[in-house]
Design goal:
The chain is of the alpha+beta class and 593 residues long. It has two domains: 244 residues, Butyryl-CoA Dehydrogenase, subunit A, domain 2; 254 residues, Butyryl-CoA Dehydrogenase, subunit A, domain 3. 52% of the residues lie in helices and 12% in strands. A hairpin with a 2-residue loop joins strand 10 and strand 11. Bound molecules: flavin-adenine dinucleotide.
Length: 593
C-alpha cells in the first residue's frame, strides 16, 4: 500500500466511526465508501448499494434559513447604544423597521441583486435618453427606506438624538440591502449643503426630506420626493479632487453651465447631484439637476455603467456634462469646504455600513453554528469554533458601538463644540478602521458556514463583495489616516476631544491606561509621522473602541476587548482569543438563542 492510500484508509475509517456516533449521520441510508475497497483501489466496490429510486438520500444536518427575525430587538449592542447615545425616544420606529429588515426587505434585497441595473443610452429612434432601469425590488427597497426616514429622520424632526436614530435606521437598512444605502446616504448627507443656498433650499429641501419616494424619470417639480447623488471623482483623480478639470461657465447669478466629466457617479437616476467644478475663482460646489428648470433633460450623458465587484443592485456610472445647467452652492473657490459637510456624513455612513455588514455576517455565522453538526457536536459547541464566533462578536460590537458614538457626536455638534471636534477626528478614525476590518471579518464569518458561505443563496457572498467598498468610497484608508494627522496637527480641539474621551475610561482597564499613555507620547511628537500614520490611527481606533465598550458597562466584554486588542493577547486572525474568555456569554449576547 502506498503512502497516499494509507492516509485515505486512516481518514475514512476515522470519519466513518465519527459519523456513526454523530446525530444526523447515524440514520443516513447512504453508505460510506468502504475503507477496504479504497485501499484496494476499487472504485465503489460490491458492498456499496446503489438505490434504484431517484431518492438518493435524506437531507439532514442542513441549517434552516434565517428568515423573519427582528434585526433591532435581537441586536443588544445596537439597542443599548441607541439608549446610551440619546435616541431611546425613537425605539418604536427602530423596532418597526428592524422587523421589516429581517423579513420582507431581506427578501427584496436578494431580488434587487439578482437583477442588475441596465443603462439605456438611446431610445429606439436614436434619441439620447440616458436612463438606468432598476429592478422593481430596488425601488421597493427605496420606497420602504424613504418612508421610514433612513435618509431624513434627523432632518425632519431635528431634536437631540435624531442623528443617532437615523444612524440606527441606516445600520438596519444596510443589513437588508447595501446598494440602496448609497442613494439614501448621499441624500441624507447632501441635505445640509442644500441649506447653504437660499434658492436651492427653497426649491429642493422639502422634497429631499420628504417621506415620499418617486423613482420616475420626470422633473423634480412633478415629484413629492427626490433623492440626491454626488460627483467629485474624475479620471485623473478621486482622492485629489483639487485636480478636477470640469469647468463651470458663469451664466449670471448663481447659474452656470458645466463642461467636463465624472468618472464615478453612483445612483445616476437621482434627481440632482452635488458636483465640483472649476469656476473663475477656483473649485466650487454646484447642484446639478437631471432636468433643466424649463422641463427639458439636462445636458448630462451617461456613458456607461461600471462593471463592479459588488453593490450590484445599484448603478455607478461614468458621465459627461456638455454644458449642463447647475446652480452654485457656497462661494466660488470654496467648493471643497462646501462639499466636505456632505463628505463628513457619508463617511459616518461608511462606518455604519461596514459595522452593519459585520453584524449581518455574524448573525448568519452564529445561526449556522447553532444548527450544524460536525464530529458529533453542534459547531457552536466546538471549542475552537466558539473562539472564532466570540472573537467576531467582540469585533462586531466594538464596530457598532463606536459608529453609534460618532453618530452622537454628529448629533451634538451644533450644540457642543467639543462633540463637533470629536466628530471631526473620530469620523476619519472610524472610517479607516471599521471599513478596513469588514472584508476580513466577512470572510471569517463565511468560513463558519463552510461551503454554504460561498454560495449565493446565503447572503455571505453578497456581503463579501460589498465589504471592500466602504473602505474605498469617500476616501481610501490612506486618505483617512492623512485626514486624522491633519486634524491632530491643525486642530488642537480635536486632539483634546479625543484625549478627554479616553481619560473618561482609561482608569477602568490597565491595558487601556497603558496604551493611552503610549499614544500621548506618540502624539506629542508628530514630526515625520506620515509614513507611520496607519499604525497611529489603528491604535487610536482601538483605544476609542475600548473606551466606548468600557463606558457601556459590559465589563466582561470590554475587558476581553482590551486584553485581546490592546494587551497583545491575540493573533493576527480571528479566533485567537485567550481560552479563559467567556465565549458562551459573548455568543449568546450577540445572537440570543
Ligand atoms: C462603487 C463605487 C462607487 C463610487 N461612487 C462615487 C460617487 O458617486 N461619486 C464620486 O465622486 N465618487 C465615487 N466613487 C469614487 C471613490 O470615491 C474614489 O474611487 C476614491 O475616492 C478613490 O479615488 P481614486 O479612485 O481616484 O483613487 P486615487 O485617488 O488614485 O487613489 C489610489 C490610492 O492612492 C492612495 N493615495 C492617494 N493619495 C495619497 C497620498 N497622498 N498618500 C498616500 N496614499 C495616497 C489612496 O488612498 C488610494 O489607496 C465611487 C467608487 C466606487 C468603487
Amino acid at each position: 500500500m502506498d503512502g497516499f492510500k494509507a492516509i485515505w484508509l486512516l481518514y475514512w475509517s476515522r470519519i466513518g466511526k465519527k459519523m456513526d456516533r454523530a446525530d444526523g449521520f447515524a440514520a443516513r441510508p447512504s453508505k460510506v465508501r468502504p475503507a477496504a475497497s479504497i485501499a484496494a483501489g476499487i472504485p465503489f466496490g460490491p458492498s456499496v448499494s446503489i438505490p434504484l429510486t431517484i431518492h438518493t438520500h435524506t437531507v439532514t444536518n442542513q441549517v434552516p434559513p434565517l428568515l423573519d427575525y427582528d434585526a433591532f430587538a435581537t441586536d443588544r449592542a445596537l439597542t443599548e447604544a441607541v439608549t446610551r447615545e440619546g435616541a431611546a425616544w425613537a425605539r418604536a420606529a427602530l423596532a418597526d423597521y428592524g422587523c421589516r429588515v429581517g423579513g420582507e426587505l431581506l427578501a427584496l434585497g436578494f431580488e434587487a441583486n439578482r437583477h442588475r441595473p441596465v443603462l439605456r443610452t438611446h431610445d429606439r429612434c436614436g434619441h439620447r435618453i440616458d436612463e438606468v432601469d432598476f429592478h422593481p425590488s430596488y425601488h421597493a427597497l427605496l420606497r420602504a427606506a424613504v418612508s421610514a426616514g433612513v435618509h431624513s429622520f434627523a432632518w425632519r424632526d431635528p431634536k437631540p438624538g435624531a442623528h443617532v436614530a437615523r444612524a440606527a435606521l441606516s445600520y438596519l437598512h444596510h443589513q437588508a440591502e447595501a446598494g440602496t444605502s448609497c442613494p439614501l446616504t448621499m441624500t441624507y448627507a447632501a441635505i445640509p449643503v442644500l441649506g447653504r443656498s437660499q434658492r436651492v433650499r427653497e426649491q429642493w429641501m422639502a422634497k429631499a426630506i420628504s417621506a415620499e419616494y418617486d423613482g420616475r424619470h420626470v422633473p423634480a417639480a412633478q415629484k413629492g420626493g427626490v433623492t440626491l447623488g454626488m460627483g467629485m471623482t474624475e479620471k485623473q483623480g478621486g482622492s485629489d479632487v483639487r485636480a478636477n478639470s470640469t469647468l463651470a461657465h458663469a451664466l449670471g447669478g448663481d447659474e452656470y453651465a458645466l463642461v467636463g466629466h465624472k468618472w464615478f457617479f453612483s445612483a445616476p437616476m437621482s434627481d440632482a447631484f452635488l458636483v465640483l467644478a472649476q469656476a473663475q475663482e477656483g473649485l466650487s460646489c454646484f447642484l446639478l439637476p437631471r432636468w433643466r428648470p424649463d422641463g427639458t433633460p439636462n445636458a448630462m450623458q451617461l456613458m456607461r455603467l461600471k462593471d463592479k465587484l459588488g453593490n450590484w443592485s445599484n448603478a455607478s456610472g461614468e458621465v459627461e456634462f456638455n454644458g449642463a445647467w447647475a446652480q452654485r452652492i457656497g462661494d466660488e473657490g470654496r467648493g471643497v469646504a462646501t462639499i466636505l459637510e456632505m463628505v463628513a456624513l457619508t463617511r459616518l455612513d461608511c462606518m455604519l455600513g461596514s459595522a452593519a455588514e459585520m453584524r449581518r455576517a455574524l448573525v448568519e455565522a452564529i445561526h449556522h453554528a447553532r444548527h450544524r453538526r460536525a464530529f458529533g457536536k453542534l459547531l457552536v459547541d466546538q471549542p475552537l469554533m466558539r473562539n472564532v464566533l466570540a472573537d467576531l462578536a467582540l469585533e462586531s460590537e466594538a464596530a457598532t458601538v463606536f459608529a453609534m458614538r460618532v453618530a452622537r457626536a454628529v448629533d451634538a455638534s451644533p450644540r457642543d463644540p467639543r462633540e463637533a471636534a470629536f466628530a471631526r477626528i473620530a469620523t476619519a478614525v472610524g472610517k479607516y478602521w471599521i471599513c478596513k476590518r469588514a472584508p476580513a471579518f466577512v470572510n471569517e464569518a463565511q468560513e463558519c458556514l463552510g461551503g454554504a458561505g460561498y454560495v449565493e443563496e446565503s447572503i455571505l457572498p453578497r456581503l463579501y463583495r460589498e465589504a471592500p467598498l466602504n473602505s474605498i468610497w469617500e476616501g481610501c484608508g490612506n486618505i483617512q489616516c492623512l485626514d486624522v494627522l491633519r486634524a491632530l496637527a491643525r486642530e488642537p480641539e480635536s486632539r483634546d476631544a479625543v484625549l478627554a474621551e479616553l481619560a473618561a475610561s482609561a482608569h477602568l482597564d490597565s491595558a487601556l491606561a497603558r496604551e493611552v499613555e503610549t499614544l500621548k507620547g506618540t502624539l506629542s511628537d508628530m514630526k515625520d509621522i506620515e509614513a507611520g500614520a496607519r499604525f497611529v490611527v489603528e491604535r487610536l481606533a482601538l483605544v476609542l473602541q475600548a473606551a466606548v465598550l468600557l463606558r457601556a458597562g459590559n465589563d466582561a466584554l470590554a475587558h476581553s476587548f482590551c486584553r485581546s486588542r490592546l494587551d497583545g493577547r491575540h493573533g493576527l486572525a480571528f479566533g485567537t482569543l485567550s481560552t479563559d474568555m467567556p465565549f458562551a456569554a459573548m455568543i449568546e449576547r450577540a445572537w440570543p438563542a
